# Entry
Amino acid sequence: MSESVQEPVARFCGNCNCGCPQVFVDHDAPEERRIRITDDFGQQIQVSADQFRDLLEQAKTGSLDPVTTMAG
# Structure
């Protein structure tokens, strides 16, 4: 079985080589799971491009800003 082609798009740390959270496009995955987001604990989520677009739009408009105050 061949491995899928996963194109790295963004890294959210970049200051080390510790397995920082990253975003990948998995070209071989089904459309509803094409965007893969990994964390530095080995976990991942897979979403569609539309779901990821919605997440980005919410971040751009500030809708997700309260998350940072709740978590910090």
